[in-house]
Specification:
The protein has 192 residues and is of the alpha+beta class. The protein has one domain (29-169). The chain has 3 helices and 12 strands; from the N terminus they run αβββββββββββαβα.
Length: 192
Amino acid sequence: MTRPDRFLVLSATGLVLLLLLIVGSFPGGLELRITPVTGGRPLVVLPLQVGERFTIHYYHSVENAPIWEEHSLDGQGRIYIEEERYLKFGAGMGKMPGVGKMVQRGPYEVIEEMHQPTDEFILRIGSPGVDHTVIWRGIHTNLSDMAPHTAVRFAGRPVSLLYRLWRSIVSHPATPAERSPDDRSHRSRITG
């Protein structure tokens, strides 16, 4: 290889590395990871945008009544609870003074407009029947089927544009894929 050819190759390589560095410094959204507290690979990884919601749905262990908790992430990856919806007042449920607005939505009691920070939190996944299920973009992932009785950490984090572009090509193995309407194996009993 001649000296001018070597210079062109090095210049092109440097330019590509500089572009990767620039793209890597731009924000690319957020990622929510649900990981066992004891460590190991995440059970679920959700790409999210700021303010985009995901829901935790389950059946209360005492009342066996359905509960939905909607959450969002801010730009730094902090988690907020935005809304709680349940069929009736169950053990431990009800209005928290100064948090949100209580409304009736059909048969459901709803606390909306909560925007209460939770940051990272730990959830002990219930047995099948409790059906702790994460609902994201219409996809239902039943954690109780995956890891019953496991304590998991819900943690959000900002990701770079380069990482987001990479994950748009090669999704994380723990990111749920869209399922066909006929696949009911990960659907919750009541989707209210």
